[in-house]
UniProtKB/TrEMBL annotation:
The keyword Ribosomal protein does not apply. Signal peptide: none annotated. Residues 15-35 have a biased composition (Polar residues). Keywords: Repeat. This is RING finger protein nhl-1-like. The lineage of its organism: Eukaryota, Metazoa, Spiralia, Lophotrochozoa, Brachiopoda.
Length: 264
């Protein structure tokens, strides 16, 4: 949280965007068996949807608008402006954490949920079992990210139609807006990175997920409206290394986007 606020002071204002942390080297530099013909991970030409469920429940008379998404080994945590709901990875509803108009959620390695509420202007901390731990940042509206000083910070600027990547000390490394590909981002919101440092952007108004290398080079559109995607808002990588996408109207979809290939 402090790292994100520090970046804003250095001239990058994410406005209504999202912040995440970039870690580790790209897929191309990873080998799973260096003593023989190396195996390596590559992006699939077409991502495969392996699971899908709706976060909308029977008593949601007005429908829902998903604004936040997080995951751990057991659960998915879905924020929809009125609820913070906990599901299994298969989509079974478990329980709800009542927070005043929640907006976003992140889960830490220590097993704590960080839930933001713009109305309360604070971050509320819960266990992943639903017990409240503490409240922090009263009077400050921030993003519930657990930042590492050793990793780059990725910030989506929704109304600036771009994504910024900064160093841990706040230096601006690069900006991506899609103009080099001739198809600019339009209201990007959710951002996440996988364990190899690749960046994934929920390009909301273009209805697609953009994949970048850790250096900001365009790789491909992982999922698009041709795959049945509808207005993606939040993205996260689950413990299985799959891409989870939350559509704003309530659907949560899980995609396999890489495969292991045998080297020669």
């Amino acid at each position: 949280m402090e790292a994100m606020l520090g970046q804003s002071r250095r001239g990058v204002n994410p406005r209504s965007g999202q912040v995440t942390v970039q870690t580790q080297p790209p897929l191309a530099e990873q080998e799973t068996n260096p003593t023989s013909a190396p195996n390596h991970l590559v992006f699939l030409e077409k991502a495969e949807c392996v699971r899908s469920f709706s976060a909308e429940l029977e008593d949601d008379r007005r429908g829902i608008l998903i604004t936040g998404l997080a995951t751990d080994k057991e659960h998915m945590f879905v924020v929809d402006r009125e609820n913070n709901r906990i599901f299994t990875h298969e989509g079974q509803f478990k329980f709800d954490i009542k927070v005043n108009k929640p907006f976003d959620v992140a889960v830490s390695q220590t097993g704590h949920l960080y839930i933001t509420s713009p109305d309360d202007r604070c971050v509320q901390v819960y266990s992943t079992r639903g017990q409240q731990v503490t409240t922090m940042g009263q009077g400050l509206l921030g993003f519930p990210q657990v930042n590492s000083v050793n990793d780059n910070i990725v910030i989506s600027d929704m109304f600036g139609h771009c994504v910024h990547v900064l160093s841990p000390t706040g230096d601006h490394l690069y900006q991506y807006d899609g103009s080099r590909e001739g198809s600019e981002l339009r209201y990007p919101h959710g951002v996440c990175t996988d364990s190899y440092g690749h960046i994934f952007i929920a390009d909301w108004d273009n209805t697609r997920i953009v994949a970048l290398s850790p250096q900001g080079q365009f790789i491909r559109y992982i999922v698009t409206k041709d795959d049945g995607l509808k207005f993606p808002w939040a993205v996260v990588i689950n413990p299985a290394g799959q891409l989870v996408v939350a559509e704003v109207r309530g659907n949560v979809k899980t995609f396999k986007y890489t495969e292991l290939k045998q080297g020669e």
